[in-house]
User: Which sequence fits this backbone?
Protein backbone atom coordinates (compact mmCIF):
# COMPACT_ATOMS: atom_id res chain seq x y z
CA UNK A 1 0.00 0.00 0.00
CA UNK A 2 1.40 3.36 -1.05
CA UNK A 3 0.67 6.54 0.93
CA UNK A 4 0.03 9.80 -0.84
CA UNK A 5 2.07 12.83 0.21
CA UNK A 6 -0.91 14.26 2.10
CA UNK A 7 -1.14 11.02 4.11
CA UNK A 8 2.53 11.01 5.05
CA UNK A 9 3.30 12.29 8.56
CA UNK A 10 4.61 15.81 8.70
CA UNK A 11 8.03 16.59 10.12
CA UNK A 12 6.34 18.10 13.15
CA UNK A 13 4.63 14.79 13.79
CA UNK A 14 7.77 12.69 13.52
CA UNK A 15 9.58 12.52 16.86
CA UNK A 16 13.19 13.60 16.69
CA UNK A 17 15.33 10.96 18.42
CA UNK A 18 17.95 13.61 19.19
CA UNK A 19 15.46 15.91 20.92
CA UNK A 20 15.48 15.82 24.76
CA UNK A 21 12.41 14.21 26.36
CA UNK A 22 9.71 16.63 27.42
CA UNK A 23 9.55 17.08 31.21
CA UNK A 24 6.10 17.06 32.75
CA UNK A 25 5.49 19.95 35.06
CA UNK A 26 4.27 19.08 38.57
CA UNK A 27 0.56 19.57 39.06
CA UNK A 28 -0.38 22.96 40.51
CA UNK A 29 -1.96 21.14 43.48
CA UNK A 30 1.49 20.44 44.90
CA UNK A 31 2.46 24.11 45.03
CA UNK A 32 -0.86 24.85 46.73
CA UNK A 33 -0.11 22.09 49.26
CA UNK A 34 3.39 23.51 49.80
CA UNK A 35 2.03 26.99 50.58
CA UNK A 36 -0.53 25.43 52.89
CA UNK A 37 2.25 23.51 54.64
CA UNK A 38 4.32 26.69 55.17
CA UNK A 39 1.28 28.54 56.45
CA UNK A 40 0.46 25.80 58.96
CA UNK A 41 4.09 25.72 60.11
CA UNK A 42 3.77 29.44 60.82
CA UNK A 43 0.48 28.91 62.63
CA UNK A 44 2.17 26.38 64.91
CA UNK A 45 4.87 28.96 65.61
CA UNK A 46 2.28 31.57 66.59
CA UNK A 47 0.74 29.06 69.02
CA UNK A 48 4.15 28.23 70.52
CA UNK A 49 4.99 31.68 71.86
CA UNK A 50 2.53 32.15 74.79
CA UNK A 51 4.21 29.52 76.97
CA UNK A 52 7.50 31.41 76.58
CA UNK A 53 5.97 34.78 77.55
CA UNK A 54 4.59 33.96 80.99
CA UNK A 55 7.80 34.50 82.98
CA UNK A 56 9.08 37.56 81.00
CA UNK A 57 5.71 39.36 81.21
CA UNK A 58 5.40 38.51 84.90
CA UNK A 59 8.89 39.91 85.53
CA UNK A 60 8.40 43.14 83.53
CA UNK A 61 4.79 44.12 84.25
CA UNK A 62 4.29 42.23 87.54
CA UNK A 63 1.08 40.77 86.15
CA UNK A 64 -0.02 37.60 87.87
CA UNK A 65 0.36 34.32 86.04
CA UNK A 66 -3.40 33.97 86.25
CA UNK A 67 -3.85 37.23 84.36
CA UNK A 68 -1.40 36.17 81.66
CA UNK A 69 -3.02 32.75 81.55
CA UNK A 70 -6.41 34.40 80.99
CA UNK A 71 -5.13 36.05 77.79
CA UNK A 72 -3.85 32.68 76.61
CA UNK A 73 -7.20 31.10 77.48
CA UNK A 74 -9.07 33.67 75.37
CA UNK A 75 -6.74 32.84 72.50
CA UNK A 76 -7.37 29.10 72.82
CA UNK A 77 -11.13 29.47 73.24
CA UNK A 78 -11.52 31.71 70.19
CA UNK A 79 -9.32 29.34 68.19
CA UNK A 80 -11.72 26.51 68.96
CA UNK A 81 -14.95 28.44 68.55
CA UNK A 82 -13.86 29.96 65.23
CA UNK A 83 -12.83 26.60 63.74
CA UNK A 84 -16.35 25.23 63.02
CA UNK A 85 -17.15 28.35 60.98
CA UNK A 86 -13.79 28.59 59.18
CA UNK A 87 -14.92 26.23 56.42
CA UNK A 88 -18.07 28.32 55.94
CA UNK A 89 -15.95 31.47 55.59
CA UNK A 90 -13.76 29.78 52.98
CA UNK A 91 -16.77 28.53 51.04
CA UNK A 92 -18.27 32.02 51.07
CA UNK A 93 -15.22 34.25 50.47
CA UNK A 94 -12.52 31.88 49.18
CA UNK A 95 -9.50 30.23 50.77
CA UNK A 96 -6.99 32.83 49.61
CA UNK A 97 -8.85 35.83 51.00
CA UNK A 98 -9.65 34.22 54.35
CA UNK A 99 -6.08 32.99 54.94
CA UNK A 100 -4.48 36.28 53.84
CA UNK A 101 -6.74 38.29 56.16
CA UNK A 102 -6.15 35.82 59.00
CA UNK A 103 -2.36 36.13 58.67
CA UNK A 104 -2.61 39.92 58.63
CA UNK A 105 -4.75 39.88 61.77
CA UNK A 106 -2.22 37.61 63.51
CA UNK A 107 0.64 39.92 62.50
CA UNK A 108 -1.26 42.93 63.82
CA UNK A 109 -2.04 41.23 67.13
CA UNK A 110 1.52 40.00 67.69
CA UNK A 111 3.06 43.34 66.66
CA UNK A 112 0.78 45.44 68.84
CA UNK A 113 1.78 43.49 71.95
CA UNK A 114 5.17 45.23 71.75
CA UNK A 115 3.45 48.52 72.64
CA UNK A 116 1.01 47.30 75.30
CA UNK A 117 0.98 48.81 78.77
CA UNK A 118 -1.92 46.95 80.41
CA UNK A 119 -3.11 43.36 80.74
CA UNK A 120 -6.33 44.30 78.91
CA UNK A 121 -4.30 45.03 75.83
CA UNK A 122 -2.64 41.62 76.12
CA UNK A 123 -6.10 40.02 76.16
CA UNK A 124 -7.18 42.08 73.13
CA UNK A 125 -4.03 41.72 71.05
CA UNK A 126 -2.87 38.18 71.78
CA UNK A 127 -6.12 36.73 73.04
CA UNK A 128 -8.69 38.13 70.59
CA UNK A 129 -6.77 39.07 67.42
CA UNK A 130 -4.29 36.18 67.32
CA UNK A 131 -7.00 33.77 68.51
CA UNK A 132 -9.41 34.72 65.72
CA UNK A 133 -6.67 34.69 63.09
CA UNK A 134 -5.34 31.29 64.16
CA UNK A 135 -8.83 29.81 64.38
CA UNK A 136 -9.53 30.84 60.80
CA UNK A 137 -6.60 28.65 59.71
CA UNK A 138 -7.49 25.66 61.86
CA UNK A 139 -8.30 22.15 60.62
CA UNK A 140 -10.72 23.54 58.04
CA UNK A 141 -7.85 25.05 56.03
CA UNK A 142 -6.02 21.77 55.47
CA UNK A 143 -9.27 19.84 54.98
CA UNK A 144 -10.59 22.33 52.41
CA UNK A 145 -7.36 22.42 50.41
CA UNK A 146 -7.10 18.62 50.37
CA UNK A 147 -10.75 18.15 49.43
CA UNK A 148 -10.68 20.64 46.55
CA UNK A 149 -7.25 20.09 45.02
CA UNK A 150 -6.67 16.35 45.42
CA UNK A 151 -8.73 13.43 44.13
CA UNK A 152 -5.78 11.06 44.67
CA UNK A 153 -3.13 10.95 47.42
CA UNK A 154 -5.50 12.58 49.89
CA UNK A 155 -4.22 10.43 52.74
CA UNK A 156 -0.62 11.35 51.96
CA UNK A 157 -1.38 15.06 51.71
CA UNK A 158 -3.45 14.99 54.90
CA UNK A 159 -0.56 13.34 56.72
CA UNK A 160 1.92 15.90 55.40
CA UNK A 161 -0.27 18.83 56.39
CA UNK A 162 -0.85 17.24 59.80
CA UNK A 163 2.90 17.05 60.26
CA UNK A 164 3.14 20.81 59.64
CA UNK A 165 1.96 21.52 63.17
CA UNK A 166 4.65 19.33 64.70
CA UNK A 167 7.28 20.72 62.31
CA UNK A 168 6.34 24.28 63.24
CA UNK A 169 6.58 23.48 66.93
CA UNK A 170 9.97 21.85 66.40
CA UNK A 171 11.29 24.85 64.42
CA UNK A 172 9.82 27.78 66.32
CA UNK A 173 9.96 26.71 69.98
CA UNK A 174 13.76 26.41 70.34
CA UNK A 175 14.37 29.44 68.11
CA UNK A 176 11.88 31.68 69.93
CA UNK A 177 13.17 30.53 73.33
CA UNK A 178 16.69 31.65 72.34
CA UNK A 179 15.34 35.02 71.19
CA UNK A 180 13.39 35.51 74.45
CA UNK A 181 16.35 34.50 76.62
CA UNK A 182 18.94 36.63 74.82
CA UNK A 183 17.02 39.63 73.55
CA UNK A 184 13.69 39.72 75.42
CA UNK A 185 10.09 38.92 74.59
CA UNK A 186 9.45 41.87 72.24
CA UNK A 187 11.82 40.68 69.49
CA UNK A 188 10.13 37.27 69.73
CA UNK A 189 6.71 38.88 69.22
CA UNK A 190 8.08 40.85 66.26
CA UNK A 191 9.49 37.61 64.82
CA UNK A 192 6.02 36.06 64.91
CA UNK A 193 4.48 39.16 63.29
CA UNK A 194 7.07 39.22 60.50
CA UNK A 195 6.72 35.48 59.91
CA UNK A 196 2.96 35.92 59.45
CA UNK A 197 3.40 38.82 57.05
CA UNK A 198 6.09 36.96 55.07
CA UNK A 199 3.62 34.22 54.20
CA UNK A 200 0.92 36.62 52.92
CA UNK A 201 2.56 37.25 49.48
CA UNK A 202 3.03 33.51 48.98
CA UNK A 203 -0.62 32.89 49.82
CA UNK A 204 -1.82 35.64 47.49
CA UNK A 205 0.42 34.69 44.55
CA UNK A 206 0.42 30.87 44.71
CA UNK A 207 -2.74 29.83 46.52
CA UNK A 208 -5.94 29.47 44.53
CA UNK A 209 -9.38 28.62 45.79
CA UNK A 210 -10.11 25.83 43.31
CA UNK A 211 -8.34 23.98 40.45
CA UNK A 212 -10.95 25.37 38.04
CA UNK A 213 -9.53 28.85 38.70
CA UNK A 214 -6.44 27.85 36.70
CA UNK A 215 -8.23 25.54 34.26
CA UNK A 216 -7.11 22.29 35.86
CA UNK A 217 -8.79 19.18 37.17
CA UNK A 218 -7.96 18.15 40.76
CA UNK A 219 -4.81 16.07 41.07
CA UNK A 220 -5.64 12.48 40.15
CA UNK A 221 -9.11 13.31 38.80
CA UNK A 222 -10.12 11.90 35.41
CA UNK A 223 -12.41 14.82 34.57
CA UNK A 224 -12.50 18.56 35.01
CA UNK A 225 -14.49 19.65 38.08
CA UNK A 226 -16.33 23.00 37.82
CA UNK A 227 -15.90 25.42 40.66
CA UNK A 228 -18.99 25.36 42.89
CA UNK A 229 -20.80 28.63 43.57
CA UNK A 230 -20.25 30.36 46.94
CA UNK A 231 -22.03 28.46 49.69
CA UNK A 232 -24.19 30.61 51.92
CA UNK A 233 -25.74 27.92 54.12
CA UNK A 234 -22.64 26.20 55.54
CA UNK A 235 -22.77 28.14 58.82
CA UNK A 236 -26.46 27.28 59.31
CA UNK A 237 -25.67 23.61 58.68
CA UNK A 238 -22.92 23.74 61.32
CA UNK A 239 -25.37 25.18 63.86
CA UNK A 240 -28.07 22.65 62.92
CA UNK A 241 -25.60 19.79 63.37
CA UNK A 242 -24.70 21.13 66.82
CA UNK A 243 -28.33 21.45 67.89
CA UNK A 244 -29.12 17.93 66.67
CA UNK A 245 -26.06 16.33 68.29
CA UNK A 246 -26.54 18.21 71.57
CA UNK A 247 -29.70 16.16 72.17
CA UNK A 248 -27.71 12.92 72.34
CA UNK A 249 -25.58 11.45 75.13
CA UNK A 250 -22.54 10.43 73.06
CA UNK A 251 -21.98 14.04 71.98
CA UNK A 252 -21.56 15.25 75.56
CA UNK A 253 -19.33 12.33 76.47
CA UNK A 254 -17.14 12.94 73.42
CA UNK A 255 -17.07 16.68 74.04
CA UNK A 256 -16.24 16.11 77.71
CA UNK A 257 -13.40 13.70 77.05
CA UNK A 258 -11.98 15.93 74.31
CA UNK A 259 -12.22 18.97 76.59
CA UNK A 260 -10.04 17.07 79.07
CA UNK A 261 -7.72 16.18 76.19
CA UNK A 262 -7.30 19.87 75.37
CA UNK A 263 -6.92 20.76 79.04
CA UNK A 264 -4.06 18.29 79.52
CA UNK A 265 -2.22 19.11 76.27
CA UNK A 266 -2.55 22.62 74.80
CA UNK A 267 -3.89 24.19 77.98
CA UNK A 268 -1.49 22.66 80.49
CA UNK A 269 1.66 21.20 78.96
CA UNK A 270 1.99 23.51 75.95
CA UNK A 271 1.29 26.62 78.06
CA UNK A 272 2.79 25.83 81.47
CA UNK A 273 5.50 23.19 80.97
CA UNK A 274 8.25 25.72 80.19
CA UNK A 275 7.56 27.98 83.21
CA UNK A 276 7.12 24.90 85.44
CA UNK A 277 10.50 23.53 84.37
CA UNK A 278 12.00 27.00 84.82
CA UNK A 279 10.71 26.97 88.42
CA UNK A 280 13.01 23.98 89.00
CA UNK A 281 16.03 25.76 87.52
CA UNK A 282 15.91 24.31 83.99
CA UNK A 283 16.99 26.86 81.33
CA UNK A 284 14.14 28.08 79.13
CA UNK A 285 15.87 26.90 75.96
CA UNK A 286 16.24 23.35 77.32
CA UNK A 287 12.59 23.22 78.42
CA UNK A 288 11.40 24.59 75.08
CA UNK A 289 13.50 22.01 73.23
CA UNK A 290 11.88 19.21 75.26
CA UNK A 291 8.47 20.58 74.39
CA UNK A 292 9.45 20.70 70.72
CA UNK A 293 10.46 17.02 70.80
CA UNK A 294 6.87 16.17 71.79
CA UNK A 295 5.85 17.51 68.38
CA UNK A 296 8.05 14.90 66.67
CA UNK A 297 6.63 11.90 68.48
CA UNK A 298 2.99 12.99 68.20
CA UNK A 299 3.17 12.23 64.45
CA UNK A 300 4.13 8.59 65.10
CA UNK A 301 1.55 8.36 67.87
CA UNK A 302 -1.28 9.62 65.67
CA UNK A 303 -0.41 7.33 62.76
CA UNK A 304 -0.26 4.33 65.11
CA UNK A 305 -3.52 5.36 66.74
CA UNK A 306 -5.23 5.49 63.34
CA UNK A 307 -4.00 1.95 62.64
CA UNK A 308 -5.30 0.76 66.03
CA UNK A 309 -8.65 2.48 65.52
CA UNK A 310 -9.25 0.49 62.35
CA UNK A 311 -8.81 -2.73 64.32
CA UNK A 312 -9.91 -2.21 67.93
CA UNK A 313 -12.74 -0.62 69.91
CA UNK A 314 -12.48 3.16 69.68
CA UNK A 315 -13.90 3.79 73.15
CA UNK A 316 -11.52 1.29 74.74
CA UNK A 317 -8.58 2.90 72.96
CA UNK A 318 -9.64 6.28 74.36
CA UNK A 319 -9.84 4.80 77.85
CA UNK A 320 -6.30 3.41 77.51
CA UNK A 321 -4.91 6.67 76.10
CA UNK A 322 -6.42 8.85 78.84
CA UNK A 323 -5.45 6.40 81.56
CA UNK A 324 -1.81 6.30 80.47
CA UNK A 325 -1.71 10.08 80.06
CA UNK A 326 -3.05 10.55 83.59
CA UNK A 327 -0.38 8.25 85.05
CA UNK A 328 2.39 10.10 83.23
CA UNK A 329 1.18 13.49 84.51
CA UNK A 330 1.05 12.14 88.06
CA UNK A 331 4.76 11.26 87.81
CA UNK A 332 5.85 14.52 86.16
CA UNK A 333 6.39 16.51 89.42
CA UNK A 334 8.96 13.89 90.43
CA UNK A 335 10.83 14.28 87.14
CA UNK A 336 11.20 18.06 86.91
CA UNK A 337 14.76 19.17 87.70
CA UNK A 338 17.37 21.73 86.70
CA UNK A 339 18.84 19.42 84.05
CA UNK A 340 17.52 17.05 81.41
CA UNK A 341 17.90 13.44 82.58
CA UNK A 342 16.85 10.06 81.08
CA UNK A 343 13.54 9.69 83.01
CA UNK A 344 12.46 13.13 81.74
CA UNK A 345 13.36 12.16 78.18
CA UNK A 346 11.28 9.00 78.60
CA UNK A 347 8.32 11.11 79.76
CA UNK A 348 8.66 13.41 76.74
CA UNK A 349 8.72 10.47 74.30
CA UNK A 350 5.84 8.67 76.03
CA UNK A 351 3.74 11.82 76.33
CA UNK A 352 4.47 12.80 72.75
CA UNK A 353 3.17 9.46 71.47
CA UNK A 354 -0.05 10.08 73.42
CA UNK A 355 -0.38 13.81 72.58
CA UNK A 356 -2.95 13.59 69.77
CA UNK A 357 -3.51 9.83 69.74
CA UNK A 358 -7.06 10.58 70.93
CA UNK A 359 -8.01 12.22 67.63
CA UNK A 360 -8.57 9.15 65.36
CA UNK A 361 -10.84 7.22 67.79
CA UNK A 362 -12.76 10.39 68.68
CA UNK A 363 -13.34 11.17 64.99
CA UNK A 364 -14.31 7.54 64.34
CA UNK A 365 -16.96 7.67 67.10
CA UNK A 366 -18.32 10.96 65.71
CA UNK A 367 -18.74 9.36 62.30
CA UNK A 368 -20.31 6.22 63.73
CA UNK A 369 -22.94 8.16 65.67
CA UNK A 370 -23.61 11.12 63.36
CA UNK A 371 -23.03 9.81 59.84
CA UNK A 372 -22.72 12.54 57.19
CA UNK A 373 -22.64 15.22 59.88
CA UNK A 374 -19.83 13.41 61.70
CA UNK A 375 -17.10 15.76 60.48
CA UNK A 376 -19.12 18.84 61.47
CA UNK A 377 -19.91 17.35 64.88
CA UNK A 378 -16.22 16.64 65.28
CA UNK A 379 -15.60 20.35 64.63
CA UNK A 380 -17.77 21.18 67.63
CA UNK A 381 -16.08 18.48 69.71
CA UNK A 382 -12.80 20.16 68.71
CA UNK A 383 -14.23 23.45 69.97
CA UNK A 384 -14.80 21.75 73.35
CA UNK A 385 -11.15 20.64 73.19
CA UNK A 386 -10.03 24.26 72.92
CA UNK A 387 -12.44 25.47 75.61
CA UNK A 388 -10.95 22.88 77.97
CA UNK A 389 -7.49 24.07 77.00
CA UNK A 390 -8.53 27.67 77.66
CA UNK A 391 -9.83 26.89 81.16
CA UNK A 392 -6.66 25.09 82.25
CA UNK A 393 -4.40 27.75 80.72
CA UNK A 394 -6.15 30.26 83.00
CA UNK A 395 -6.64 28.06 86.08
CA UNK A 396 -3.10 26.71 85.87
CA UNK A 397 -1.73 30.24 86.18
CA UNK A 398 -4.04 30.98 89.11
CA UNK A 399 -2.93 27.78 90.86
CA UNK A 400 0.75 28.70 90.41
CA UNK A 401 0.05 32.10 91.97
CA UNK A 402 -1.90 30.58 94.86
CA UNK A 403 0.30 27.57 95.72
CA UNK A 404 3.70 28.78 94.52
CA UNK A 405 4.08 25.55 92.54
CA UNK A 406 2.54 23.74 89.60
CA UNK A 407 2.45 20.39 91.44
CA UNK A 408 -1.28 20.56 92.36
CA UNK A 409 -2.06 21.27 88.70
CA UNK A 410 -0.25 18.14 87.49
CA UNK A 411 -2.07 15.96 90.04
CA UNK A 412 -5.44 17.50 89.16
CA UNK A 413 -4.77 16.92 85.47
CA UNK A 414 -4.00 13.27 86.19
CA UNK A 415 -7.33 12.93 87.99
CA UNK A 416 -9.14 14.55 85.07
CA UNK A 417 -7.58 11.99 82.70
CA UNK A 418 -8.87 9.18 84.92
CA UNK A 419 -12.36 10.73 84.68
CA UNK A 420 -12.01 10.94 80.88
CA UNK A 421 -11.06 7.24 80.73
CA UNK A 422 -14.26 6.34 82.61
CA UNK A 423 -16.35 8.61 80.38
CA UNK A 424 -14.89 6.97 77.27
CA UNK A 425 -15.96 3.53 78.49
CA UNK A 426 -19.54 4.81 78.92
CA UNK A 427 -19.80 5.81 75.24
CA UNK A 428 -21.77 3.17 73.38
CA UNK A 429 -20.57 2.01 69.98
CA UNK A 430 -23.10 1.51 67.20
CA UNK A 431 -22.93 -1.89 65.59
CA UNK A 432 -22.01 -1.74 61.95
CA UNK A 433 -20.73 1.82 62.31
CA UNK A 434 -18.25 3.05 59.78
CA UNK A 435 -14.74 3.07 61.18
CA UNK A 436 -13.23 5.64 58.82
CA UNK A 437 -10.26 7.46 60.22
CA UNK A 438 -8.65 10.65 58.95
CA UNK A 439 -5.49 12.18 60.39
CA UNK A 440 -5.89 15.70 61.77
CA UNK A 441 -3.64 18.07 63.65
Assistant:
Amino acid sequence: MTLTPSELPSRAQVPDPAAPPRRRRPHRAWSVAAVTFLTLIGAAGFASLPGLLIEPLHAEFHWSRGTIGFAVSVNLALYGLTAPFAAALMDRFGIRRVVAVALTVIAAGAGLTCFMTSSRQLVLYWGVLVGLGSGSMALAFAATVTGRWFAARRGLVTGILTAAGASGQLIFLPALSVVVERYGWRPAAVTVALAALAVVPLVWLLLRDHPADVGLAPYGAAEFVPKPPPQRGAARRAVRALVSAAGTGPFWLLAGTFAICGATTNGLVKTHFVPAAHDHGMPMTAAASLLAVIGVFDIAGTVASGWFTDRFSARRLLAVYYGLRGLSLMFLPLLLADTVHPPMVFFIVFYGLDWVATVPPTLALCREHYGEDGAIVFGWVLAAHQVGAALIAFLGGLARDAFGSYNPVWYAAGALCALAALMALVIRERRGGVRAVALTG
